[in-house]
Specification:
Layout lengths: L8 H10 L3 H17 L10 H11 L2 H23 L7 H39 L5 H10 L7 E13 L1 H6 L3 H21 L3 E5 L3 E6 L8 H25 L6 E18 L2 E7 L1 H16 L3 E4 H9 L3 H4 L3 E6 L8 E6 L2 H13 L3
Helix pairs in contact: 2-3, 2-4, 3-4, 3-5, 4-5, 8-9, 9-13
Amino acid sequence: MPGPHWITPDSILRYLAELRSLPAAAAIAAGIFLIDTLTSLHFAVASLYVIVVLIAAHDLHRRGIVITGVTCAFLTVMSYVIMHGVVVDGAAPLRFAVSLISILIATILVLRNVSANQRVKEVERERANLARFFSPKIVDQLVDIHTPFSFARRQPATVLFADMIGFTAYSSGQPPGVVISVLRDLLHFLSEAVFSNQGSVDKYLGDGLMAFFGPPLTSPRDATNAAMCALEIVKSIECWNHQRTRCNESVVRIAVGIHYGEVVQGNVGGEKRLELTLVGDTVNIASRVEAYCRTLDASVLVTGEFVEALSAEGSLELVKAFVDEGFHVLRGCKEPIRLFSVRRETETAQRLAGLQASGG
């Protein structure tokens, strides 16, 4: 049989931590009260109520912990009154004060620990939610500054739509597992390009996505980042297609549309599911531009406003990656819109490699 040397302070604390029931806390409190009341030990027995507070912290929230601390203080007072009445004599009042202070300190520390744990859980939930839409760098900034999204605001932004061309025709003749696998790979390439260029995903659209650059933390390179993202998407899809052709799989074609302008940002949805999103003419035009890629047979189409934003940011080399396509009337738009395209993927990949080598 194990001897007394097996009983250590750590083992006692671990054992107490496993007593996650209020009956155990109540039984210990009762035992402390009886010892404190019926014996004349010359030390602050009531300070042992700290154990009760610690045990209660495992099962109770802030209010329950406060009630437990008050109850333990009340039991301490009752024991003192029963043993000594209201007479202040000897060291008993000092032991009484030490016990009350111990209970108070333990209760405060437990409450602070509970608050800290709750804050950590809230931050982790917030981080997990934000990580679905924002790059890791933006997530860290948002968590640090506690940026609120509960109100709508209007600000300039670059909006990007990316979509797989001919997905409906492709998926109709493929097994479900193949279709889902292609979608996963496609959305992985798209989202990686967005996040690596400090963009944010507004929503996934089945065989594509909507992304934005700017909100909620604008920077002097929002349009530049969007352009780099579009070129990176083209390069990634081209490399992916090389792999697919070696495996005798069909080539994937992508369409990317970008527009720059003012958007309205805010939370939409029901109480159980709120999503941060962008709305406004800028979003609608970006979507129309992406759809028009099929008409011009272009991998990437951007608007004149976007090219002007690139120039204003000083990204003149990036501006050269786009070819002026003139003015076009898009579906749902009353006025003609000037469009610029990126046509051939190989030239785009070479230009992107040169820009990245020179630091963008």
